[in-house]
Amino acid sequence: MDFIGVEAVLRSTPQTPSVAPQMRHMRRDADVMSSAEMHSYLRRVALPDDSLTSPVDASLLRRIADAQLSRIPFENLDIHRKRPVEVSVAAIEEKLLRRERGGICYELNGLLARALRTVGFDAQLVGAAVVTPNGPGLPLGHVAIVVGFAGETWLVDVGFGGDAIVHQVDAGAVAGWDVRFPSGASYLTDATTRPLADFAAMAWWHSTSPLARFTSGIVCSLTEGSVRKTLSCRPDEQYQLAVTDGALRSARDLDGDEALAVLAAEFGIRLPELPRPARF
């Protein structure tokens, strides 16, 4: 089993004839990056141009996913500047590549899927429901990537707030996957691959609803190897920088100037002023 960032447990949902063929015969989304866009992506994730001509195999899949996970933050800062998340290709590339920002699952996995298709993988988006204490959340509340190559199928996710996964699965035997992380977080995928546009409504909900977890506070996180750095802030509290490495964790509170400097130095995000958690 191969994972990025953390170890996770995948359980298969029993196959049902009415939905399993949708996973086996995935709708092909041929959307790929132009040469200029792909070179911009490779620079953003600090990969060499020879990645474009590397064999399309598990090693390349892990290398690209790991590079993006360690270079493009999971963050919701714009939501607290009252700028809803847009899931169009143009909006994602403008934000994550040209402005060198991060994003939430739809942006991060949307960008990665397009990059993977460009180098030769069959990468498709699949919806998921995040599991809460009250059971599964809203459909399409999360998105992961189903990747196919050389007769193999892999589940890939670099957009779950630092928890991440690259794992081979048996598409012919399941209708979805139950993904569980040691942190206690988990989600259930569905069995239908979808275009990016299908997630627009949920991206808006996450950006504007007081019931969404992204509106409850600010978070910015990067994971490199076993080390995860997270800058966070809840309403009426100070910013905090937490660093975890396996079972080890350290945290410290930051004033406004320190938090703005940490955003630039640790996460590569340069803003004219520090956002505060908004009220929704």
UniProtKB/TrEMBL annotation:
Domain of life: Bacteria
InterPro entries: Arylamine_N-AcTrfase (IPR001447), Arylamine_NAT_domain_sf (IPR053710), Papain-like_cys_pep_sf (IPR038765)
Gene3D superfamilies: 3.30.2140.20, Arylamine N-acetyltransferase
PANTHER family from the UniProt entry: ARYLAMINE N-ACETYLTRANSFERASE 4-RELATED (PTHR11786:SF0), N-HYDROXYARYLAMINE O-ACETYLTRANSFERASE (PTHR11786)
Family: Belongs to the arylamine N-acetyltransferase family.
This protein's name: Arylamine N-acetyltransferase
Organism name: Rhodococcus globerulus
